[in-house]
Amino acid sequence: MPRFCLDVRGEYACFTRPEMKVERVSYDFITPSAARAVFEAILWKPAIRWHIERIEILAPVRWISVRRNEVGAVISTRNVQSAMQNGHGELGLYVEDERQQRAGLFLRDVAYRVHARMDLVGDDARQNPAKYAEMFSRRATKGQCVNQPYLGCREFDARFRLVTDLNAEDPALAEMDGDYGWMLHDMDFTRPADPRPTFFRAQVKHGVLDLNGVEVRS
């Protein structure tokens, strides 16, 4: 099982708390699902499953409050189905009619070191793990990605760098130690028609969030 480490940074980030229904309020640091999405943005294959094992926090938590315009509606599924059947239909959204102004509490100047394990699915992939490991290393080293990785919201793009020598890196921030309560872990897709979020208790020690063996609850 190949393991990799990425240095992930960005000017802004928002890892939205699901309990906030209207205004966007971020967790104090990146969630495991958002970290996984960064790895998937660099290399995604049906045979690959990324598992985040550890997150190191490299920058102190800094907040910024922003008020911005959002669209408060989506195109109706029924209208889409009707247009597909009839060959025409009304699928547009008028931003002027659906615009909503919302406040958000975001993070700024974030930096993390994320450790992940690459699990391979299928006999063909398991027989040749070096192929996929070399593919990821090459793409991460060159800064290549399938789509632009982001930090919670698509407008907050992420910069990444493959870490090959941990001894040459700065240590995690010990001042971040503490119990940060329940945090979103990932989505459970065992029932594709009804995916459900899972949560875990986020406890940071010596600036490190260790996800190995954490108790996950739905």
> Number of folding domains?
1
β-strand percent reads 35-45%
User: Ranges with pLDDT <50 over ≥5 residues?
Assistant: none
* Average pLDDT figure: 90
The rounded distance between the terminal residues' Cα atoms is: 27 Å
Q: Largest sheet at a glance?
A: 9 strands, mixed
Number of strands: 11
Overall shape: it is: globular
Q: How large is the count of helical segments?
A: 5
Explain the overall architecture.
The protein is an alpha+beta fold and 218 residues long. The chain has one domain (3-69, 105-210): Alpha-Beta Plaits (2-Layer Sandwich). The chain contains 5 helices and 11 strands. It has helices at residues 32-42, 77-86, 95-98, 123-127, 129-142, and strands spanning 3-13, 24-25, 48-57, 63-71, 99-120, 150-151, 153-157, 159-162, 178-188, 196-205, 208-210. Strands 1, 2, 3, 4, 5, 8, 9, 10 and 11 form a 9-stranded mixed sheet that branches. The chain has a two-stranded antiparallel sheet with strand order 6-7. Strand 6 (150-151) and strand 7 form a beta hairpin.
Annotation keywords:
41% strand, Alpha-Beta Plaits, two-stranded antiparallel sheet, alpha+beta, 5 helices, nine-stranded mixed β-sheet
